[in-house]
Design a protein that fits this description.
The protein has an eight-stranded antiparallel β-sheet, covered by helices on one side. It has a six-stranded antiparallel beta barrel with strand order 16-17-18-21-20-19, surrounded by four helices. It is α+β, with helices and mostly antiparallel strands. It contains six helices and 22 strands. About 20% of the residues lie in helices and about 35% in strands. It is globular, with a radius of gyration of 20 Å. The protein folds into two domains: about 260 residues, Beta Barrel (Thrombin, subunit H); about 60 residues, GMP Synthetase, Chain A, domain 3, CATH 3.30.300.50. A hairpin with a 3-residue loop joins strand 20 and strand 21. This is Alpha-lytic protease prodomain-containing protein. It comes from Streptomonospora nanhaiensis.
Length: about 400
Amino acid sequence: MHASPSPVPRTAGALLALSLTTVLAFGSAPAPSWAALPAAPDSTAPARPGSSAGPADAVAAQFGLSPSAARDLLRAQEEAARADAEAAEAAGPAYAGSVFDSSTLRLTVLVDTPSVAEEVRRTGARVEVVPRSADELDGVVAGLDAAGPRAGVVGWYPDPSEGAVVVETVGGASSEAAALVEDAGVDPAAVRVREGAEQAVPYAEVVGGRLFRTGGGVCTIGFAATASGEPGFLTAGHCGTAGAPVESIPAGASGTFQHSQFPGSDGAFVRVGPGWTLTNLVDDQAGGFVEVTGSQPAPIGSTVCTSNPYNGWRCGRILGRNHTVSYPQGTVHGLTRTDVCSGPGGSGAPFVAGSQAQGVTSGGSGSCVSGGTTYFQDVNPLLAMWGLELVTS
């Protein structure tokens, strides 16, 4: 496979009156084998939903769908997310993940035990049997995480349809990948090595726009949230360390990073003071807003959108979850991978599936001219870790 351009972080529209943008570059890699979904007709053209827009308008514009087809897609995704949760409960430890096909609007639930398949089918789900459960694949990921990064190995992630964990390498690093697998003590049969990635490097860019300032740069606000009733917002962890000050742009309101993790994960909670107003809105960069009503995770294959003042409102699909990205400054675990395009300045930007918050932008590769890959840190683990409540009304 050919090498992809180095990933860079993305900025998105603010859900408060301002937004923030710090850039992080991550190494990119080939798309997983199960991610052979139809590409957007023009993935480089920003969707412009307009002032009265909702999520369906953005999806329709991005993928060349009629408004009714876009609404059908989002309704099907919401139903698939609920069906996935029910099927996962029915499957128990045999659950191996799920994939949503945005062309057929069908969800496929994966299990690793044939005898469980029939029970899961009773929930109405389409079922396929794969070699390993989600817990087994997550165990392999955890083993690789514990063994640490290796030169030339830029990341690893579970591929549920293949029933294996994919280890991504820069060309010629297959021996290093084999050593990582051996040191991790995981089953080599549960690992696939794929070359073609580029080593990721983080970088920051100071830009203008609706931003908030932190340290020597700016980052995008993700989602408004509260900590024990105290107002704040989620953004990327690499935007600032705990205790670092934040300032609105234009200046006038201040805040502080109360929680921040990077590397390891890439999330942060900024506690804000007077002068900030919390909303459940995401700026669509076209004069309107999208309301956030919850944070139900969307299955692999679902359509997601992000927003920043540089690239506008952009949509694509979820390609995989629990992605580990390794780069010189450290390793980040648990990222979700998408084929959404973005560019420098997007760190912390919100990702939404319909009206459901999905995560905050961590980094990516490519551009909205050539297309690319963007990773986000899932929002629910951040909320749970710090006891936060997402603002949804």
